[in-house]
Amino acid sequence: MASNDRVRVRGVEIHRPIIYGNTAWVLTPKEREALPSPDHTHRWTVAVRSAASAPDSEIVGGADDLSYFIKRVTFKLHDTYPNPNRNVDKPPFEVSETGWGEFEISIRITFVQESGEKAITFYHHLKLHPWTASGEPEIPPLEAAAKMGPVHSWQYDEIVFHDPYQAFLNILTAHPPTPLPKTKRRPIPFHTANPGSLEASKGGTPEFTQEMEKEEAERLDTAKQKLAQEHSRLVDAIVKKEKELDALKKELDKALQAS
Amino acid sequence: MAASAADVRSILSIPNPPASGSGSGAQQAKKPQQAERAKKPEGIPRELYALIGPSAPTLAAQFAKPRLKQKPNLGGGGRVKWKVIQDERIGAGARTDGLQLSHWVKASTDPEADYPFAKYNIQPPHYVYSQDEYSRLLEDPKWTREETDYLFELVRQYDGRFYVVHDRYEFPNSEGTSRSLEDLKDRYFSVCRKLVRNRPWPGDEASKAALLSSLSFDKDREVMRKQYVISLENRTPEQIAEEDALYLELEKLKENERRFKKDRDELLRTLLGIDSGLPDIPVDEEGLQGTSTDTKKKKKTVAGSVEPQTPQTPTAPNVISLSQPQPKKSAKSAAYDALHCIHRTGDAQTATSSKAPHTPVHLRSLKIPQPKQTIAQRIAQVLGELGISHNRLVMPTRDNIARLESVVHDAGLVVEKKKALDKVEQDLKTMKARLAALRGEAPEEDGETPQTPMEVEEGPEESVVDGRAQSVMSTKSTRSRRQNNEGLGAMPPLHVLRKCATRRTALSRCYSSGPGTLTPKHSIYVSESTDPYFNLTFEDWLFRHKSPDEPALLLYRDSPCVVIGRNQNPWKEVNLRASRRTGIPFIRRHSGGGTVYHDLGNTNFSIHLPRASFDRHATAQVVLKAVRSMGVDANVNDRNDICVGKEKICFLIAFLRTCLTHTNALYVSGSAYKIVKDRAYHHGTMLISTRLDTLGELLRSGKDTMETRGVASVRSPVCNLQQYHVGVSHEKFLEAVIDAYRQEYDVYEEPHLVRDVDGYREIPYIREGMEVLKTWDWAFGQTPEFTYKIERRFTWGTMASELRSKHGIILSCSFNYTEDMDGALRGKLDALASKLKGQRYGSVGSEISMIAEGDERIADVWTWLRAEMDS
Fold first, then answer.
1. Is the pLDDT of residue B518 over 80?
2. I need a labelling partner for B727 at 20 to 30 A (CA). Which of A18, B256, B411, B695 fits?
3. DSSP characters for B8-44?
């Protein structure tokens, strides 16, 4: 078996669904007073979690413990935070802080040694203020924002391993991810790529579902059909204009000969 | 079978002669007949009974209960009424040629209903293609465009009935050879296949593949098949006989072989208990006789193409199976894979042998396709209209990414088609104009009057200046500001940004109410004006108001002036005395960079692009292409200036500028703010026949001891384009740049002439912008901090002074004097220095002169300082 450990299983691509993002809450005036920095207006948690949500859980995602393939997650906060590089070596892979502004957080995932893979880095834009339908950010007064409840900004993604080592593949297959629920039980996580989901995202802790994938697939298919229609319309228009152009050319030649 | 007269009568609802009665009488008329032949046994058809008559044989009893399936009851069993309809419905639903047909229908059918067979009248899809598609995909040396068109027209006309098409095919072929049916089919189907493949497909891949396979046509095979059929038809009786004989012989041999194997198997089994290992010969089920009429098999035998059956050796241990058993994906393993999120790429065999580098772990969303840079903006726009983000997905799974990829690909095709349509329309327009000109008519007014109401686009920008953002901006550290300066070329100081934003806020209010505003909807502008104030402001207006995802080009010439960069010091860059003497003004422009001299001998261009597709090299290439197209062998140096040899003929002054818009990253914890770079422009000036002497005089200041925090110009050797090519003129350069620009950015628009009479000057933004350019606050007041050290030997001693100024205001003035200076002078100098503090550099009020009164030395110093500041 040991000799097999360093052998890559060719032709296999295995992925693990994760979500990353943040949830933000408006601080109450009392909480603010208690803080060392009273200009902070929000409390937030940025995290990397498994995509499926645990039943009856108040957090987005996180049904599975990802530490079987993630060794460490490093969150790089804004430079103005003390000790901005936060290493999290054991689950939950998350950082909670307070602040008053949005910024880009760099997230670096280091994998367990068996994977033989390098760390990956990606970014998350810390979202504190409520989503708006127009996509244009507007910052409502704190009281109004507090009434709207916590702000969720989560991105689904998949970590894809190609040709994993046998040992690593064994680890992965020993921990099958909890599948996403088939149907919608809770609000939809809002995403800017689907502004129409704003209403459906309200009212509680959102959850990722397979339905969302299907819904997006349908949107893409509809777009594809519309594009095909548009294309054939354009082709027809072009052919028509070309005929017109040919006729004009002939007319022009005639006119040139005549003159 | 001929129907009997009674049948005809019953069908046509004509009453039988003996039975008189109404239309329904047929029913009653029959009954007595049947009663008459009451003996007719059940199960015998009426016709048969009519034939044998009442003298039915006793056999009839045997038919009494035949075990036959009961006949379906189709309607009223002869009680149906029929009528003729002269029907335009047939025409309405199914015909387009207006032919009217009459036919029989049941009387009970609803006369208003649609013609029931209209739904079967389906036209096969008719494919059309445009010129660019033809030249890109469909070229074939054997076919001309005209002939292909002719073929498609015929196919359309005869609904794809190729025998008819072939029969009617009468295209005067240049080669003189006639097209065979296969030629026609081959051409038609290959064109259709190419079109289907290269066009967006609304459905899924499977249906596309199905359509493609229905369009497949293998000409060689079809020709061969026909040849075979012909040769089969043309065999002589002798040949047929010989084939039969040969076939019989072959079967006999096979039979012998089988018998031999059977015997040997038996023998070995009984003796040794093993199989013979001889290959099995399949037993021909049909036997020898059954094949004599089977022409297909005979054919095969004649051609000798009976494929040797693969030896089946399930029990033979001495034969090794070479073919790898294909791993079959059972439902169970598929479920396992789905559970563990495993995707098998299937090339396990090849992967082991190849040395392909390992694909490292990645996020799935990284594989979201990136469209080509040049059309990315347009694709984003097309998809944006459909509510799809071209680079983000809510659920970036494998399937959805594949879907997005095909959507993006289709969007690319749509964008291409849109471009093609624009081009055709443009051609059509020019053609019409030419035709009209030829006929001596007044050309059609094609310059759409840009008198559409202005849309207020700056709404969200206002919030940039709300209290919080402002305070963040001002607390921004100098370090990050410097970063910005490096990153963005030249960033105006923050307070100016705020000022600009406020100004725009005020302006946007004007727009919403002000009538007669203009929008920058063209893509190529040529300004007729030579007023530098107007041209520079127009450029700024175009930059700020042009839709951010379209490119724009502006070309103009200015009357003589010196244009300094946004963050430059006019006292250092410009010889102000020469400027005053010659009356040539200097202007601070909105973009950063160095100082240039403009006159009618040089042509200015600016290329505006969306930030995402901005590439300083690409824009330089556009101009380079233009210059080369005029026959000058120019090159681009590493600063993106265009040179001939070592000498510059063109400066690309400021390379980009950002537009401050509100984003979702406006302010952050602690201190940072973000400027969205949604648009950038590159502008430059081409020296064609500039007065290089004036240029030199005006740009010389000689103040080496003046140190500015802003941008200093880098002097470089210059020369005029005309030195290399006498024929070059402003107009020719315009044409060349416009052509190069059109090619690069696929714009098919005619240049739009900006005339003074068009009212552009009345646009509040431009009107106020021009005023601002002329104010002291802008021209001098925007000067970054600088210090100026000067020294002068007077008859009474040596004097050294250091002037410090920021935003054109004197921050401090200090004097260095030698020890022997008397106290009175020192006091007066200090008083002078404190008076100067806070005054405008270069235009100090006259009340200062009061101090100078009474002491000649102070008067000397003051005259000296004033002259220095003034130059």
1. no
2. B695
3. HHHHTTPPPSSS--STTHHHHHHHHHHHHTTTPPTTS
- Chain B CB contacts of A160 under 8 Å are 361-364
CB contact under 8 A, B358 and A162: yes
Range of lowest pLDDT (A55-64, B34-43, B128-137, B806-815): B34-43
Backbone angles phi, psi at A156, to 5 degrees: -80, 145
Q: Do A78 and B672 touch (CB under 8 A)?
A: yes
Contact B428 A236 (CB under 8 A): no
- Neighboring chain B residues of A76 at a CB cutoff of 8 Å: none
- What are the structure tokens assigned to B80, written together? 């149906």
The average pLDDT across B798-819 equals: 82
- Is residue A73 scored above 90 in pLDDT? yes
Q: Which helix (H) or strand (E) holds B791?
A: strand B786-794
Query: Do B477 and B668 contact (CB within 8 A), yes or no?
Result: no
List the single residue in B with minimal CA-CA distance to A237. B421
- Average confidence (pLDDT) over B100-121: 73
Element (H, E) at A42: strand A42-50
Residue with tokens 């295995």: A14
Q: Say whether pLDDT at B359 is over 50.
A: yes
Give the mutation candidate from A226, A227, A240, A250 for the B interface (greatest B CB count, under 10 A).
A227
Portion 214-253 of A in contact with B at CB < 8 A:
216-217, 219-232, 234-239, 241-242, 244-245, 248-249, 251-252
Question: A242 and B130 in contact by Cβ < 8 A?
Answer: yes
Q: Closest by alpha carbon to B417, among B382, B370, B377, B371? A: B382
Q: Dump the DSSP string for B402-443.
A: HHHHHHHHHHHHHHHHHHHHHHHHHHHHHHHHHHHHHTTPPP
Cross-chain CB nearest to B431 (options A117, A189, A249): A249
- Most confidently modeled range among B176-190, B605-619, B701-715: B176-190
Sheet holding B642-644, edge to edge: B635-636, B642-644, B647-654, B679-687, B602-610, B552-556, B524-527, B752-754
Closest-CA distance, B480 to chain A, in angstroms, reads 12
Is the CB of A208 less than 8 angstroms away from the CB of B670?
no
Is there a contact between A241 and B428 if contact means CB atoms under 8 Å apart? yes
pLDDT tens, B176-209?
667 888 888 888 999 888 888 888 777 777 888 8
What is the C-alpha separation between A48 and B828, in angstroms, rounded? 71
Mean pLDDT of B438-442: 64
CA distance B105 to B107: 6
Chain A interface mutation, best of B358, B430, B668, B669, highest count of A Cβ atoms under 10 Å: B669
Q: Name chain A contacts of B406, Cβ cutoff 8 Å.
A: 224
Separation between Cα atoms, residue B159 and residue B790, nearest integer Å: 94
In B, which residues are within 8 Å of A38 by CB distance? none
Higher pLDDT, A213 or B641: A213
Torsions phi, psi for A34 (to 5 deg): -70, -20
- CA–CA min distance B782, chain A (Å): 31
DSSP assignment letter at B323: S
- Indicate if the pLDDT at residue B772 is higher than 70: yes
Select from B360, B382, B410 the Cβ nearest to the Cβ of A118.
Answer: B360
Mean pLDDT (whole number) for B635-647: 71
Least confident of A153-167, B37-51, B335-349: B37-51
Which of these, A127, A149, A104, A125, lies nearest to A44 by C-alpha position?
A127
- ipTM exceeds 0.90, yes or no: no
What's the one-letter identity of residue B739?
D
Say how far apart CA B830 and CA A81 lie, in whole Å: 48
Q: Report whether pLDDT(B609) > 90.
A: no
| The pLDDT of residue B778 is above 60 | yes
Partners of B425 on chain A (C-beta within 8 Å) are 241
